[in-house]
């Protein structure tokens, strides 16, 4: 019996094209225009896989998954994200919803069929991994914010028109955030939503956006600060900016941002004191470096995170009080975290940067790492070169398995503990992407070790016959 595939997309054209591709490969497509319609279909239709768009009216892709995971009989149904934002939200969407894979629009027939076949095989062999329960998934508005952060409007080349388009996008973003909260109250008078939208569209103009941006900067960094340097990362690299700040012995905050993520480096007299981030993978969490260093265990870290009142107290301070963590261990973890964030941002090829003189943060004032900028930049450059070599040597969807014969022939394998941990994690089931996400080391270090293990023939790529 051919597999039945539920295609959920608000575009009639996409539904028709995808349905035709599936039918031509002997699959049985079932079509739904949004998440709500899909759930109604699933009440009386059996399907083997869901191809799911993300941004849809009535019920978006994230909301659909949350409802699906709350349904006892359907919660394990495999889902593949099928979205124009697939390459940007893949990891977060898969992690939060338990989706089995993602494909980015536009795609060709061969690519779509390959993803469908792979997802069905993975689910059938029990390699899909556990799915979260609805109660453990983030609130719905978090999914909406992901969509906002990754939206990419087609902006005009005309500066005047582009400013108007930006104002419209900003107004739309505020509407999404605002109405996500208002709908929870369930007391919005009839017609109020349209009135609020109209008011926002009229009030958010290029001039008011500039005033709001100025206000946000002053609130973030204080009134006695001002932005003195800004530009495009694709034109002026962050390494060059850091070298300039070091040469001039500047003090302030260097913010580097894309639509997906932001890294802020706090410098004092040209040296790096501290780094903060948003929108990156959990590998940059401060607690991870403490656990990896053996300074605390996971239970101690969890307890400290749960006991902090709001965000008013730094995690390191809480651990110093609760488990007598030595200040040197906190500093060591901060140095590692800040270093990794500098290495990460040095390899960014796109985005914007802005340096604000005099800006500081409470964490940076307490950390005062005083890290030598030139040494950080040099290590960042070295990693950029290694990344090019590593990333070109394998596909992140490759599945690896240990060559037991090769391992046994080398009676004494001189591997570091980190290398042994990565080797032990290779099970012939998980992809390289899954290994990187599941191993408690930086993605760079894991990929570097995998590259070395592959070249030493201790592990091999799994083929369809392996």
- Mean pLDDT, all residues: 81
Q: Helix fraction? A: 40-55%
Unreliably modeled segments: 141-148
Provide the gyration radius in Å.
Answer: 25 Å
Description of the molecule:
By secondary structure, this protein is of the alpha/beta class. The longest helix is centred in the middle third of the chain and has 27 residues, at 159-185. It has four domains: 4-148, Response regulator (Rossmann fold, 3-Layer(aba) Sandwich), CATH 3.40.50.2300; 159-204; 222-382, no CATH class; 400-461. The protein contains 20 helices and twelve strands. Strands 2-1-3-4-5 form a five-stranded parallel beta sheet, with helices on both faces. A five-stranded antiparallel beta sheet has the order 6-10-7-8-9. It is globular, with a radius of gyration of 25 Å. Strand 3 (49-52), helix 3 (61-69) and strand 4 form a beta-alpha-beta unit. Helix 6 packs antiparallel against helix 7.
In short:
This protein is an alpha/beta fold. 52% of the residues lie in helices and 14% in strands. It has four domains: 4-148, 3-Layer(aba) Sandwich (Rossmann fold), CATH 3.40.50.2300; 159-204; 222-382, no CATH class; 400-461.
């Amino acid at each position: 019996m051919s597999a039945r595939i539920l295609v959920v997309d608000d575009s009639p054209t996409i539904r028709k094209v995808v349905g035709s591709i599936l039918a031509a490969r002997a699959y049985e497509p079932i079509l739904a225009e949004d998440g709500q319609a899909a759930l109604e279909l699933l009440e009386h239709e059996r399907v083997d896989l869901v191809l799911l768009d993300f941004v849809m009216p009535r019920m978006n892709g994230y909301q659909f998954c949350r409802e699906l995971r709350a349904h006892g009989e359907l919660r394990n149904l495999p889902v593949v994200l099928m979205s124009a934002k697939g390459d940007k939200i893949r990891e977060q969407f898969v992690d939060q919803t338990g989706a089995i894979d993602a494909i980015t629009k536009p795609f060709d027939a061969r690519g779509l069929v390959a993803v469908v076949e792979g997802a069905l095989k993975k689910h059938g062999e029990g390699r899909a991994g556990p799915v979260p329960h609805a109660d453990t998934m983030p609130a719905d508005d978090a999914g909406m914010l992901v969509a906002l952060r990754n939206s990419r409007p087609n902006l005009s080349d005309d500066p005047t028109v582009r400013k108007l388009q930006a104002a419209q996008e900003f107004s739309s973003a505020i509407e999404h955030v605002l109405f996500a909260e208002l709908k929870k109250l369930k007391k919005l008078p009839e017609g109020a939503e349209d009135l609020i939208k109209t008011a926002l569209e009229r009030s958010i103009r290029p001039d008011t956006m500039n005033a709001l941006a100025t206000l946000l900067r002053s609130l973030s960094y204080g009134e006695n600060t001002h932005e003195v340097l800004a530009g495009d990362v694709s034109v002026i690299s962050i390494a060059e900016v850091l070298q300039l700040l070091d040469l001039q012995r500047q003090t302030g905050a260097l913010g580097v941002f894309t639509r997906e993520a932001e890294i802020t480096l706090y410098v004092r007299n040209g040296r790096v004191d501290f780094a903060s981030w948003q929108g990156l993978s959990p590998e940059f969490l401060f607690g991870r470096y403490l656990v990896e260093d053996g300074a605390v265990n996971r239970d101690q870290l969890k307890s400290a995170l749960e006991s902090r009142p709001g965000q008013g107290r730094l995690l390191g301070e809480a651990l110093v009080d609760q488990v007598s963590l030595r200040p040197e261990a906190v500093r060591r973890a901060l140095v590692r975290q800040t270093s990794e964030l500098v290495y990460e941002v040095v390899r960014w090829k796109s985005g914007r940067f802005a340096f604000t003189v005099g800006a500081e943060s409470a964490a940076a004032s307490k950390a005062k790492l005083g890290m030598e900028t030139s040494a950080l930049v040099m290590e960042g450059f070295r990693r950029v070169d290694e990344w090019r070599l590593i990333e070109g040597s394998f596909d992140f969807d490759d599945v690896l398995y240990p060559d037991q014969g090769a391992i046994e022939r080398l009676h004494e394998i001189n591997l570091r503990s980190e290398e042994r941990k990565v080797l032990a994690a290779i099970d012939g089931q998980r992809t390289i992407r899954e290994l990187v996400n599941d191993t408690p080391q930086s993605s760079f270090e894991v990929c570097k070790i995998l590259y070395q293990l592959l070249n030493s023939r201790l592990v091999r790529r799994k083929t369809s016959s392996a």
